[in-house]
Specification:
Elements lengths: L7 H4 L4 H28 L11 E6 L11 H12 L5 E6 L3 H12 L9 H5 L3 E6 L1 H15 L4 E7 L11 E2 L3 E8 L12 E2 L6 E7 L14 H6 L1 H8 L1 H14 L3 H6 L3 H8 L7
Parallel strand pairs: 1-2, 1-3, 3-4, 4-6, 5-7, 6-8
């Protein structure tokens, strides 16, 4: 017999049935070990990320898309995105997508990715919320959602705020430091005239500011014919540069980088930053 040939009995110490049993046992052990292996991989902590320096979230009204540049909240977000610090999170949501906005805030603040927010992570929150029409009401409701989570809000801004029948956009929760309301009184769609603080000690209502577009009409070249005919006042509140430029200034002042904040601490600058918005004559 050649040197490389072996007898069948020398090839394996196991019978055919024993070999099958051994393979089955090894497969079972492998399958049993997989969950433990998976848990071990999951237990490895994900690298911590850095929270954005600030979070600015806007809501559009009606059934407007979040990226429709014909509308005030979207235009404002585009402008401030270009000049605020690069690590500022700026986004606009449809008013019916409040849960998406809430989830985005939670994800951004959860820097160690453990699924819960620590006191330190909550303390790093610098959040501004704004909106128009139904979107303005959504901003207040989101602030209320954040209150339940123990998260503070720097500022809420409502422009011609209209709440749905089951909503309350008139009382600002006590986790909000400052709130302001712009409204116009004419037409079938007109905004809430007054907002109040749930706790005036903790929340400063900067004012409820009337904009009368019958006295001071605004040209809105991108508006639809329907809005021009049926909701002209409400339409003008959304494209009014006087209102939206003031909101832009308030956002910038509250989110100014440290170097700018130091210059803003001078008496004259401080007076400007706390001054009430200008009214039209």
């Amino acid at each position: 017999m050649p040197w490389f040939a072996t007898s069948r009995s020398a090839q394996s110490p196991f019978t055919h049935s024993q070999s099958i049993s051994l393979h089955a046992s090894l497969l079972t052990l492998t399958l049993l070990a997989m969950p433990a292996l998976s848990r071990a991989v999951d237990a490895v902590p994900k690298p911590a990320s850095t929270a954005p320096s600030s979070i600015v979230i806007g809501f559009v009204g009606g059934f407007v898309g979040h990226d429709n540049l014909r509308h005030g909240p979207v235009q404002l977000a585009q402008r401030i995105r270009q000049t605020l610090p690069k690590d500022t999170y700026v986004n606009v949501f449809e008013n019916r997508r409040r849960k998406l906005a809430y989830d985005a805030i939670m994800r951004l603040l959860d820097t160690n990715h453990d699924g819960t927010l620590s006191a330190a992570e909550k303390a790093r929150a610098h959040i501004i919320l704004f909106g128009h029409s139904w979107g303005a009401a959504a901003a207040v409701l989101l602030a209320r959602d954040l209150r339940r989570a123990g998260i503070s809000v720097l500022l809420t801004v409502q422009v011609d705020s209209i709440a749905k029948s089951w909503q309350d956009d008139g009382v600002i929760p006590d986790n909000v430091a400052e709130a302001i309301n712009f409204y116009q009184p004419h037409g079938i769609l007109h905004g809430r005239t007054t907002i109040t603080a749930a706790d005036p000690v903790r929340t400063q209502v900067l004012g409820n500011y009337l904009e009368d577009y019958k006295k001071n009409p605004i040209d809105c070249p991108d508006a639809t014919w329907f809005a021009r005919v049926f909701t002209p006042g409400h339409m003008q509140s959304e494209c009014d540069p006087h209102v939206w430029s003031q909101i832009e200034s308030m956002v910038r002042q509250r989110l100014a980088p440290p170097s700018d904040a130091m210059s803003a601490s001078s008496p004259s600058a401080a007076a400007d930053s706390t001054a009430a918005p200008l009214k039209r004559q």
